[in-house]
Amino acid sequence: MNTINTELLILESAKKLFIINGLEKTKMQQIADEAGINKSLLHYYFRTKDKLFEAVLAGILAEIAPMLKTFFGGDTPIFTKIERFVETYINLINKNPFLPEFVFNELNRNPENLVRVMISAGVDPDAILQQIEAEIESGKIKNINPKQLLINILALTIFPFLAKPIVKRILLENDEALFNQFIEERKALVSEFIINAITIK
Amino acid sequence: MNTINTELLILESAKKLFIINGLEKTKMQQIADEAGINKSLLHYYFRTKDKLFEAVLAGILAEIAPMLKTFFGGDTPIFTKIERFVETYINLINKNPFLPEFVFNELNRNPENLVRVMISAGVDPDAILQQIEAEIESGKIKNINPKQLLINILALTIFPFLAKPIVKRILLENDEALFNQFIEERKALVSEFIINAITIK
DNA sequence: GTCTATATTGTGATAGAC
DNA sequence: GTCTATCACAATATAGAC
Predict the structure, then answer these.
(1) Is A104 an 8 Å CB contact of chain B?
(2) Element housing A159 (H / E)
(3) pLDDT in tens, A16-63
């Protein structure tokens, strides 16, 4: 196994475990086992556990940058953006069910990471606010604080995933298939809900 | 210091630290320091760290039970319930800013705790769903999956607190006062948003 | 680069005096 | 009930052979 492959192997193994169990609960031994190598190699490549975690996190943040760009940037109409964001977010999660909670927690723990990602993705957080403002001015949507609308969109999209265990247990008989169906239904429902809420009648 | 006071002192100290830092990051030594006593006393009163945590959690869950009862039980109209829930939830958090994330995480980690609290509070999770169903039947509100509406209500209310660091940093110049103002504005805004979304025009 | 062995530290928990 | 001293173990990190 040469240098580059081992390094990537470690990163992938650590990523898998960090996402599921977080920094504290993931042990170096676990990561080594997952990668099929010795504990010492982890330190050889990444010096400390914290630095390994930082490396993993950086990779994950780079992955989600395009989604942020699609949502926050560009001049697609806001209704279309909402539909696409909900769709993209849900699809992303189907590929990696534990990712959203992990990313959300990390960005919450250190919002500067989010700032950095947005800058690196060439995204201005204010752009979408100005877009909403413009759509209000033009009479397309009701007068609402653009920041509040933005939070509402994010809340309706992200919350069900953050609260997945609760939602499954209380409302859906703890059934994974029912949850997926529930989420699938939201792809159309969330957009419709928001549009109904802010369209001028 | 007699038995009862010391026990309460430990519980309060542990509560404070567990809420802010969680189970893993809170050390027994920290709790002892916070309480101004020796580490051994913690074990004397609660045997293990896990049992101490359980005791703290039980106390907190008992605290939030009344709010759940108000929201999920009773036959107040759903619009009124929404307004009151948003108001109650926000006020609760103003008293203890770190509580919602902690409680949310714990209930998510082990939803059986939520089930238990609801039972102990005499609350049937299905009651509010039937209430929504009835209001749809009677033509008061649009046809929407009651479970989806319920999640939307919870999402719009709870999410901003879960995402507080992000919201503050990205939208509100990291200003605590602006955040409080933002939340205050939501007391009316969330209800209005939902009502607009589901009222038949 | 990769391994085995070991050092070091932190932390939950117990023993035993008072 | 409360304290000091200590144990036992787990986990990160390093030393050094190959």
Answers:
(1) yes
(2) helix A146-162
(3) 999 999 999 999 999 999 999 999 999 999 999 999 999 999 999 998
